[in-house]
Every structure is written in C-alpha cells, then in structure tokens.
Design a protein that fits this description.
298 residues; mainly beta; four-stranded antiparallel beta sheet; 31 strands
C-alpha cells in the first residue's frame, strides 16, 4: 500500500508542479534525521514528528505552521506534532500551510482551508499557488490571476502564467512575454521580457534575447543583460555564469568572485556551495575555500 501510494504521490506532485511551473518553488525544506525523528527546518519554525507516528501513514509531509499533511489509503488530512488528527483525511491531495491557509484538492478542483479545516475558498479553481504576501495565484479556464484570502479577485484571471508576489510585485506572462504588476493589478514593468524571476533584495532577474541580467523595481536595467545564467541575489551577491563558468557579482555588477566554477549557488550564512572539476566545496564572500557548513549546503 505504501509503495503504491508513494508512486501515486510522486506522479501527482510532478503533474501539479509542472502545471504550476511558473510559480516559485519554495515549498521545500531541509530535512535532517535525528535518531527516531525527522526534523523539518524552515524559516518559521521547527517541528518534530516521531517515527512511530510517521509509520502509521503512507506518507507524512513536512510540518509547517504546526500541522503536517498526511496520506492514508489515498486520502489526505492533517495532524499536529503529537499525531492528533486535526483535519480529517478526506482530500485527494493536500499541501503545507502558509499564512494560515493550506491548498487542498478535491475532485480535481483546488481550494483553501484554514487550520480548523473550514473551507475558506471553494473548490472551483483548476490550480492554485500558496498564499504569498496575502495574495493567492489561481488558475481558471487556462488563465491565471490573483485573489485575496476572502476569494475576492484582486488581479483579473487573464494571464497565461504568473509568478507569485515578492517584495510587492508579481511576474505575469502574456503572449509569451513577461513583466511585473503591483498588488492593484497595474502593470508597473512592461510585459516585454522573454522570462523573469521574482524580486530578491530589490532586484529581479530578467531574460532577453537568450541572455540574463537584473532590473530594479522601476524596470531599469541595473546589471547588463549579458549573462548565460544567473541566480537571484542573496546576502548582497548574485551568482552569474558566463562562457560556462560561474562567479559572483555585487549589486553594482562588479565581479567580486571570478567566474571560474562549474556551478555556484547563492550565499547563505556567509558561504556558498560551488562545484569545480567534479568536487563540491564551499567558499566565503571573498572567494576563499572554507570549512563545510551544513546549514548553508545547497
């Protein structure tokens, strides 16, 4: 039963996330094994669910905001960290809680429930994104828009794809081009880019003519659109690739760590993971190799 359910779970997640590919994938957390418990670490809290409780279910998702989604016999519900069933297992699929709401699927339609299990947003949408900055991305009849937590339409359901709000702006796609809107739905950065990603530390990555760069919230190009690949800024630095090698730039576009790595990730707790000649290690913001920091591992 567990094998069958896990296969079904994997297929569902792949299908759902493919359909929502334009939404930031930020539901993943770091899981660390500690004896007979699984500890889920995220930005908000830590939650420990014992192995004995996990063994009662076909699958137990990462705990968030005090509750964990669980599945048994292909039906999903929620438990607290003591193992108490808080929301009955009656859904076809369930996601983690965010901003007090959880996305759940029933009869191929998506809606939202609160921590008491009350349906706050009816099961009428084809796909939904997690709540971000008080707004929720929704898909209906093959178009995307945004609603608030009362199901009021804030941004008309008219876009081909969307990227959830970050720092007050959301990415939207129309006719294969991307731009940004504010929380009133006003287009504040023209829909002209080939692709974009959300704002981080005041800058967003944009793609044009097969090259990447960074813009500010006024739409001004701050870092030239000349890189083969980029990663969002973190801790004041952004990872960029040029001619197949990765390095790091500051917000003025200065290359502070030479482009010499085969792969490089963003900084976390002052260090970044990099790859060179098949070897993985970590560097500090001066580009010096440092002792491995598991809290910054990517």
């Amino acid at each position: 039963m567990k094998v069958t359910s896990l296969i079904a779970l994997t297929i569902y997640i792949v299908t759902y996330m493919t359909a929502c590919a334009s939404l930031p994938i930020s539901d993943s957390n770091v899981i660390k094994e500690q004896g007979n418990t699984t500890k889920t670490t995220n930005a908000d809290e830590q939650c420990i669910i014992s192995r004995d409780i996990k063994d009662k279910y076909d699958h137990v998702s990462q705990c968030h905001e005090g509750l964990a989604a669980v599945v048994l016999n292909d039906k999903w519900g929620y438990i607290d960290k003591s193992g108490k069933i808080v929301i009955p297992m009656e859904y076809d699929f369930a996601f983690k809680f965010s901003e007090g709401l959880a996305r759940v699927v029933l009869n191929e339609k998506s809606g939202f429930i609160n921590k008491s299990g009350k349906v706050l947003i009816p099961f009428k949408y084809d796909k939904v994104g997690r709540p971000v900055e008080g707004l929720l991305a929704v898909k209906l009849n093959d178009k995307w828009g945004f609603i608030d937590k009362t199901d009021k339409i804030i941004v008309p359901v008219q876009y081909d794809s969307v990227i959830s709000f970050s720092e007050g702006l959301a990415g939207v796609e129309l006719n294969d081009k991307w731009g940004f809107i504010d929380k009133t739905g006003k287009v504040v950065i023209p829909i002209k880019f080939d692709y974009i990603w959300f704002f981080s530390q005041g800058l967003a990555t944009v793609k044009l003519n097969d090259k990447w760069g960074f813009i500010n919230k006024s739409g001004k190009v701050i870092i030239p659109i000349k890189y083969d690949e980029v990663r969002s800024f973190s801790e004041g630095l952004g990872s960029v690739a040029i001619n197949g090698k990765w390095g790091s730039i500051d917000k003025s576009g200065n290359m502070v760590i030479p482009a010499q790595y085969d792969k490089a990730y963003g900084f976390l707790n002052g260090v970044a993971s990099v790859y060179l000649n098949g070897e993985s290690f970590q560097i500090n913001k001066q580009g010096k190799r440092v002792k491995y920091n598991k809290m910054a591992a990517r």
